[in-house]
């Protein structure tokens, strides 16, 4: 049985990063599994809101925010890969502020 759940994650990737770092984040978007491209300026993976399974991201004052609909295991694998790769390209530990990542 494929249990689809909603997931949300806010990362400590701030909206005010220099453009050269945002360029690196954009390149990471494209390397992540399921990359679909931008829909109305919003990056999507696996599908869009109209699909059963999707991930989307938005830049918020609190950081880079992800919203997803997918099974738990696939989500955890995907977001952990994103955090690891983002940490490498940005030069600091990427994670959720509520878990102590600043």
Written description of the protein model:
With 102 residues, this protein is an alpha+beta fold. It has a domain at 13-51. 31% of the residues lie in helices and 30% in strands. It has 2 helices and 5 strands. It has helices at 19-31, 72-90, and strands at 5-11, 35-39, 42-45, 54-60, 63-70. The chain has a 5-stranded antiparallel β-sheet, covered by helices on one side. Strand 4 and strand 5 form a beta hairpin. Helix 1 (19-31) runs antiparallel to helix 2. It is globular, with a radius of gyration of 13 Å. The model has no long low-confidence stretch (mean pLDDT 94).
Average pLDDT rating: 94
pLDDT under 50 segments (min length 5)? none
Strand content: 25-35%
- Overall structural class, as computed from helix and strand content, comes to alpha+beta
The multimeric state of the shown protein is: single chain
Q: Order of strands in the sheet with the most strands? A: 1-5-4-3-2
What overall form do the CA principal axes indicate? globular
Compute the number of helices.
2
Number of strands: 5
Distance between the termini: 37 Å
The arrangement of helices and strands along the chain is EHEEEEH
Report the helical percentage: 25-40%
């Amino acid at each position: 049985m494929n249990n689809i759940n909603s997931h949300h994650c806010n990362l400590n990737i701030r909206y005010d990063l220099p453009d050269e770092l945002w360029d690196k984040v954009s390149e990471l978007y494209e390397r992540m599994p399921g990359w679909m491209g931008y829909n109305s300026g919003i990056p999507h993976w696996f599908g869009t809101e109209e699909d059963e399974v999707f991930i989307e991201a938005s830049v918020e004052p609190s950081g880079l925010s992800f919203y997803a609909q997918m099974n738990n295991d696939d989500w955890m694998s995907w977001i952990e890969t994103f955090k690891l790769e983002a940490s490498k390209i940005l030069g600091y530990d990427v994670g959720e502020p509520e878990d102590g990542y600043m």
